[in-house]
Every structure is written in structure tokens, then in C-alpha cells.
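Teaching note: in complex prediction, the entire set of molecules is handled at once rather than each chain in isolation. The prompt given to students was simply: 'Predict the structure of this complex.' The entities are:
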Amino acid sequence: MKKTLSLVLTAALSLSLLSACTPAADPQPSSGGAKPSAPTVSTPATPSGEKVELTFMTNVVGEKAAALESALKGFEAETGYTVEFSAPGDSYEELMKTKMSSNELPDVFTTHGWSVARYSEYLMPVNDMEFAGRISDQIKPVITDSEGNMFVLPIDIDIAGIVYNVDVLADNNIDPDSLKTWDDFAAACAVIKAAGVSPMHIGGKDTWTIGQFFDWVAPSFYVTDESASKAADLKAGKFDVPTWTEIAQMMADWTAAGYFNPDVLTADYNSDMEALATGKTAFCFYGPSAIMDAKGVNADASLGMMPIPAASDGDAPSLIAGEDIAVGIWKDTKNAAAAQELLNYLARPEVAGAIAKAAGNSSGLTDVDVELGDIKTYFDKYKSVETFPYFDREYLPSGMWDVMCATGAEILAQKSGAVEDAGKIMEQSFLDKYAG
Amino acid sequence: MNLFYLPAVLLFLVFVIYPFIQGGFLSLTNWNGYSQSYKMVGLKNYVRLFTDGNVGTAFLNTLIYGFGSTLLQNVLGLALALFLNGKFRGRSVLRTVIYLPVMIAPLIMGYVMYFFFSYNRGAINDIVLALGGQMVDWMASGPRAVAIMTVVNALQFVGVSMVIYLAGLQNIPQMYYEAAAMDGIGKAAQLRYITLPLLMPAIQSAVVVNLIGGLKLFDIIMALTSGGPGYASHSLSTLVHRTYFGSENAGYASAIGLVSFLLIMVIGTLVTRYFTKKEVEM
Amino acid sequence: MKKGKRLGRPSNAWRIPVAAVILLVFLAPFYILLSVAFRSPQDLNSYWRFPTQLHLENFTDAIENGKILLSMANSLILTVGAVLLITVVGALAAYPLARCRTRLNQGIKGFVMGVMMVPPLSILVSLYSVLVKMHGVNQYWGIILILVTFELPLSIFLYSNFISSIPGALDEAASIDGCGPVRTFFRIILPQLKPVTASVVILTGVHCWNDYQFSLYVLQSPKLRTIPLAIASYFSQTTSNINAAAAAALLAILPIVIVFLFLQKYFIQGMVDSAIK
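The expected output is the structure of the full assembly:
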């Protein structure tokens, strides 16, 4: 009798507990959909005396994070607000996904290239803010959604080509500007390989480093050649498998030829930087920030950046342009006014300039001059080279990045059938996620 | 008296059963893990699960991590215990050193092991080179990576089974061995007919404790291979993690999670029950 | 250990080389960690060669940028909180499970054992959203409740095994004397649980101190970062100074290694008590 009673009690108590925490922020079925909220620019300033605390999260690490943090310190000193700064590194995207799923985001955060495709649902449009008119035309299309809304302050622009070790190329009499197509590039790799150096270095243990390869190579096959561009198809939900197979085959050929480092599956990004800085490899598929990172290993390393070769003779080399440090405001923040003040502060030429300098990138605002040192030579030299957005962010649905990394790893592991599988798996996931 | 377990039951309801049920619901959707919207897709995720080679690999790997390290830990643990059960100088130091790694966070142990198994500058390859061999890219082959991580996990926690067996051995009255020796029974037979049967309770505990650790292996894999190359060294835990956060298939990740939850629960319960019966029979 | 006996057994000589090999294998990770942590980033010699010049900047770097000291305090707070609850709730739950072997209780015990084996990540997604609804993210109590839930099975397992070995006649005598179950538990059972409590504290304490999977999601604020989180973020952030990361790892394991070296008797005894009743 006693036992039954206690059982009933247990059940009753637990039920009441369960109902107490039933969904408040549960994801809603798609019929409801989320509407972007109207911009709230005219929010009155926070009444003085009330302590304002902002949370700020960013994906960037190292020098960039230090520069951001010191900018936030300046903001705190000026306004008396406190800003809790958090840079969780590798786990940033995971944390943001859990936060989005429970609709509980930081007041202000950086969007690492995804301000439109992934985060726009959660961001406050910035079209009416002071700095909107100063955003550089180079980055504007990348951060604008189909309805003309922009959601972030782009502090700097990431203009990326292939990073190389100047000495390794010079020792082998290779002129980076002569590498116009992937065939030229492969021929150069053969020469470097013969000299006993790994032509390319990928730290495949970190998986994202493999995705870099495809982001660098795919545009030349899909979109840079205007006469054969498949951009419209991709946007319309059509994925061309044979083209992807070509790219995959190229990776497989280069693997078989030994153009990648022997530990391509197990090295990490750190070892990429070490190899690049110490002349153990010639090329890496990273943007200018890698030059900063490699110099951290060896300050005397002589490093350069070249445009990305084209897939055919009829096309010209290109560069990739994307958001780098771009800062947005959570649309449901309780501190909208303070968050907007913060964005305005970060958009000041001297503040934005200092952060862009640490990133080694040019500014995303028209009236900011960044002292860039070495890298500036390359930006100037390739000023007229056409730029394209990051392939996966622009042309693939969110979530495809991991598929590129995983299928690439199979190719690098020289698994039989990996090349054909890559195209098939890419198409399957593309269609699933496009329909999603 | 049953009311005593109310707090525990409440915690399980809120943090295990309720999430489990909600996970069951999510597994019927195509939720990407962060959006406020999703669609119901029925049993599609489950259909996919049974044809997905990566899930099969991860399941197999989980069993290898679980049972492989359990086997190693018990064989090695027993060997070490028999060794330390002899009397010689430095034996307590040895026991301390073998047990020490148990204290270290597996994540940190994983990072330290990366200094050993990396290709360039890896401590193991330095030895291979010094012996005149060719450098080996240890983690580049999936099965080898799985084997290495099983061994690393086993060695890190072998101290646990060792001390369990050591205590078990010390509980066996010396006179049994003396009597056996007098009857001319050899060391091997003594081990088989005296030591092992009397150690049965210790074996049960050691197996259960080790199995729990091995089936959950996560941190070491994240630190050493992130589940790579490709998907070759994933355990179910790391696969769920990657499917949820990397591939943005939270619905599918929930399905994998639920199925592995049930499978492991069943396997674990069966093993525990098997050993509990054994003990009762003794 | 009697020294005279050792001399009297010449057959023990073979144990010395074996012991040496074992020692080498188990100390190698610590040696390499030390060797990397004290090495200057420019020193590209083999890790086996201990650096001749100790590069202490790695440690100042780790303390300042890795915020290792703060993370130790955080780890301590949540470990103490979690272990307290794990022992109390576990002992309470174990008592009826060990004493009343009804079908329901057997079922619950089986369930508890199952939970112990299951990879918690399989339900992480919804677990996290439950915690969000309770506003437990970035709160000590949030992570403590989760750790308690997933360490409870071990605690219940150890306690119920131990209580089963206490003769039931004691309870019966107590109840004949008019003690209710509550009084029986506190008067008769609780005082006898000291040794097994030591085991529970030690085993679950080490787990909580080293937890990574749960803390990663629940403790997102850098102010609340625990040791494994601090180390993980430090390893992922330092692109150029793996040596400072190793220094951070070394600092991180120092407290628990020291505690273990001083209290190892209790650690090992606890483990043994838990396994052999």
C-alpha cells in the first residue's frame, strides 16, 4: 500500500515538474516561420544610473581577439557599461547553434561569413544606422539579403588567395604570377616535389582545413568563368555532379602524386603554419590571416599571397572576398540601445582601423585606412583581380561545409571510389538541405 | 521508504527521460539544430540510419572502444596485479605511477598523446627514426587509429582494474597456495583453479567499471583524431556530435543518439546481468 | 614489506627490469608533457631531449592568457557542490533499492545501470534545451544538477551494493524497536556508510573535476570556465605556441596529481572498497 502511494506521488510530482518546464522557446513548425523584426534605431538611451551589461561573443582568436577585446575596453571606459567578452575558439559555432536553438543569443556577436545565410533570422537589420552609408561596395553584396537588409558592421574584408612561401618558390624558379591555371599550378607542384618539399600543406585532422581546399578550387570550376558559370543553377537548387567530380579527381591526382604533405590526414592547422613558416611547404589554402599566424611561428619567414588559378585557359585567376570580423546585434536583445552604441563605437575609423590592422585585412568601411605593412603590397598588386564570394557560403546551403570536409578526407585517404562518391554525396546533401 | 529515491527519480525524469522523449520527437524532423523552423519527415531519419555506413562504423568502433579496452584493462590489470603482488623494492612507487594517469582528464591525456602520435616531431616517430625505421603516420588509418585509442584508453585506466585485482589477490588466503604447492600443483594451475575463481567478484566490478568508461569514449577521440580520417574513428558519441553540429542534421543526430542509447543500454545491462549471475553461482 | 624477505628470494631479480619498463611506459606521457611545457617555441629538438634552458614564459603566458587559476577555482566549486549532492541523493536512493527488492525497484535499478553506460551525448540536444528553459545555462547549479544526474548511477550502484552487505536483521531489529524507515536510515545505515562514501566522493569527484562534455555546453561564459574547458580553448586558440598550451595542461593537472600523491591511500582504498565488498 505504502509503495503504491509513493509511486503515485512520484508520478504526480514528476508530471507537475515536466509541465512546469514545457516549451517556451521550442522551435516552431515551419508554417509559423520567423519574421525579421523591424529595426529599433530610435530606442531611447538607457536611463542613467542603471547598470548596462552587454555580452559579446566572437569566433576570432589570437591577435584579432586581442584587438577586439581592447576596443571593447575603450568602449567600457567611455560609456561606463560593462561588456562580457568571450572568444571560445573552436567551439564557437557549436555554442552559437545551441544558443540559436534555444533563442538565447549574446547581445552582440560576430558572424564569420554567415550574417545572411545562417544568422539573419536572429539579427537586427543595420540599414538605418550611421555607418551603413560607409560600408564598402566590395563587401555590401556579400552581407545583403534578398530583401536589401544588412545585418552586420563589417569591420574588415577578407580578401584571400593562395598563401605561399616566397623562398621556396624562388629556390625553384617559380614565378607565382605565371601560375594562371590549375595545370600551371600542378606543374609548379611537380617541380617543388622534385626538390624534396611538400608542394601543398593541409592539416586534415582539423577537417575544416580540407574544406578550405574546395572553397579555393570550386569557384574556378563553377562560377569564375562567365561564359560557363553555373551560379544561377546552384542558386536554383541544381548541383552539377560532373564538375564536382573534376575537382575531386584533381585532388585525388595530386594526392597520388604526393603533392600534399605525407601526414595530410593527421596534421593540424598549427603544423600547416609551422611548415609554411619554415619552408617545408610552398602553398596553403588560407587567406592573409595565415600570413600573420605563420609569422607568429617564424617572424623572419618571407610569405606572399597570389590569386587563385583558373580552371581553363579562357578564364583569369581570381580572389575570394568575404566577411571577416563582422559584428551584429541579436534582434531580441534587452539592451538594444547600448548594443547600437557599441556598433557605432566600433565603426569609428580609428577603432575599426586598429582591429582591421590586427587582422591583416583591409577595412570594410570606405573612410578607414588600415596600415597593413607587407600584405598591402599584395593587395595593391592584385587590386584589379576579380573577387568572388566564399563558395560554400554563397552557393551551397548551410551545413554543406562539413560534407565537403568529410568527402575530401576520403579522397585524401585514397579510399577507392572516393572521387565518385564525393560528387554523389555532395549532390544528395545539397538537394536535402536545399529543400530543408 | 521508497520515497527516499524521489530526488534521484526526479533528476532522471527531468534530465534523462524527458530529453529522451523530446529527442524522440526531434528524430522525426529535419531540424538543422538551430533554426526556429523545421518539418516533420516521419521515419526518414531511421531509414537512413540503417543504410548509413558511417553509423555502422561508429557503432562497431564503440564496441571496440568498449569491449577492447575492457579486455585489455582486465588482462593487463591482472598481470600487473600479479606482478605487484610479489614482494620487491619499489612496488608501492610502481603502483602509484600506474594509478596516476587515472587522475588526468581524458581530454588532457588526448592532447599529450598527440605529442606522441603526430607525424612530424611525434615522440613515437622519433623513436622509430632513431631505430632506423621509416616514419609512420599513425592516425592516418582508421582501424589503426581506433586500435591506438583503445590502447591509450586502456593504459590510462588500467590502474583501476589493477588495484581492484590487487585487493582481490590479497584477500585470498595464502594457505590455499601452500596446500596446492604441497600437492605439487604448478603455478599455472594455481592461477587457473585458485586465483581466478576467487577473484570473480573483483572481475565483475572491474569489467563493469571499464565497460562504462569505454562505451562512452569521447574526449580522447576529440583530442586525437576528431573522428577522422573521414568518419573512420568516430564513436557513437563523437558521431552524434559531428552530425548535430557539423552536418547540421539535428533530427538525424537525435535518431542516431536514441538508437545508440537503446543499444548500449541493452548491451550494458546484458553484460552486467551476466556477470552478476556468475557471481551468484560462485 | 620486509626487507629481509626480499633478500631471501633471489627469484625476484627478474622483476627489476620489468618494473623499469612499466615505469618508463607510464611516466613517458608526463616526461613528454614536461619536456614540451618547458621548451622554447624555437627549440625544434626531439621532445625526448629535455630542453637545456627552461622557458618559463610558457607558464606566465598560460596563467595570464589561459586564465588557468580562475578555472581551477571554478572546477573546485562545481566539484564540491556536485559531490555533496551525489553522495546524499545517491545514498538515499540506494537504501530502498537495496532493501525492498520489488519488481519496480529491480526495474529502477536496471534503468540506473543502463543510464550509467549510455553516452550522454545521445540526448545532449534536448538536455540542453531543458536546461535553457530552466535558465540553468551559465549557472553553477545548472552544471551541478546535470553532473549529479549522470554521476548518480555510479553512486547508487556503489551504495546499494554496500547496503546489501549490511545485514537486514539490523533494520528489522530497529523497526521492531519502533524506528520508522527514516530513523532507521539515519541511525542504523548512515553511520556505516563511511568507507563507501569515501569511494563515492573520490570516484565521482575525479569525474566531475575532469568533465568536459557537459561543461562545454552549460558553462559558456568565460568567467565560469573549468579546467578542461580552459585547456581546450587554449589548445584551439594558440596557433603558434603549443608549448604554452602544454604548460597550461601541466598546471591544470598539478592540483589533482598533488592531491592524489598525498591521499593516494584513500584513493586506492576507495576504489577497492567500491569493487570488493
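Point out the following to students. Chain C touches chain B through 95 residues (CB under 8 Å). The two ends of chain C are 25 Å apart (CA to CA).
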